UniProtKB/TrEMBL annotation:
It holds the Pfam family ABC_tran. The keyword Nucleotide-binding applies. Keywords: Amino-acid transport, ATP-binding, Nucleotide-binding, Transport. Belongs to the ABC transporter superfamily. Involved in beta-(1-->2)glucan export. Transmembrane domains (TMD) form a pore in the inner membrane and the ATP-binding domain (NBD) is responsible for energy generation. Residues 5-234 form the ABC transporter domain. The lineage of its organism: Bacteria, Pseudomonadati, Pseudomonadota, Alphaproteobacteria, Hyphomicrobiales. GO terms for biological process: L-amino acid transport. GO terms for molecular function: ATP binding; ATP hydrolysis activity; branched-chain amino acid transmembrane transporter activity. It comes from the Bacteria. This is ABC transporter ATP-binding protein.
Length: 240
């Protein structure tokens, strides 16, 4: 198995706060790796640091054998990295169509790719010419994910995609992520819904206090209630 992404001794400081304190981890190519941890553990900071939105103060980040920790965010995106932030960050004054055009290479959307996206998120077709700001929270999340996958990506960084969503929409997201993985993409996904994590995760990284404190198979963590309670403060069963 090849490691697509590798972090070694990564530290990130935000102002006077030392958030990441030596993150060491690998993300295997072609798998969905869950990044779990209590609130404030450093999960979002890890994704933002990989994406270059917050610079690493120390350590190395390697994507496909190429060091990226000093690269600008647009250059990292051009290497085939998509990012879905927790805030969704859609352009509210633009239509659904315009949001996707901005995310497409050279502003040209592939019709087949677009139909593939509509298969998971039919609401985007329905509201194609509507302003993104008028969409519901779940529809905005669909649009945020659609923007990240409008072009094939080798790596997707996704931050809490199911937060606050209805079960039917969560089901569509699970199907979408499974299909993305089957297409050959690698996913690093922060998720607080442990039922979702158990369903789609191949491997798992658990963070605490800005460091990785556990690495392993998602199925093994899902089967070990005492380990869940020690690492996360509660069992996965409590979130199902």
């Amino acid at each position: 198995m090849t490691d697509l992404l590798r972090l070694e001794g990564v530290h990130t400081n935000i102002g006077r706060y030392h958030i990441l304190q030596g993150v060491d981890c690998v993300v295997p190519e072609g798998q969905t790796t869950m990044l779990l941890g209590r609130n404030g553990a450093g999960k979002t900071t890890t994704l933002r640091t990989i994406m270059g939105l917050w610079p690493a103060s120390r350590g190395t980040i390697t994507l496909g054998g190429r060091r990226i920790e000093a690269m600008a965010t647009p250059d990292i995106a051009r290497l085939g990295v998509g990012y879905v932030p927790e805030t969704m960050a859609v352009f509210s004054d633009l239509t659904v169509k315009e949001n996707l055009i901005l995310a497409a290479r050279d502003g040209e959307m592939d019709a087949g790719r677009l139909d593939w996206i509509f298969g998971f998120f039919p609401a985007l077709r329905k509201f194609w010419l509507s302003r993104a700001g008028s969409l519901s929270g779940g529809q905005k999340q669909m649009l945020s994910i659609a923007r990240a996958v409008i072009e094939p990506r080798q790596l997707l960084l996704i931050d809490e995609p199911t937060k606050g969503l209805a079960p039917a929409i969560i089901g569509a997201l699970i199907d979408c992520f499974a299909e993305i993985k089957r297409s050959g993409a690698t996913i690093l996904l922060v998720e607080q819904n442990f039922h979702v994590a158990q369903q789609i995760g191949d491997s798992v990284l658990v963070m605490d206090n800005g460091m990785i404190v556990h690495r392993g198979a998602m199925a093994e963590l899902a089967a070990d209630v005492p380990l869940q309670e020690r690492l996360l403060g509660l069992s996965l069963e409590a979130h199902q």
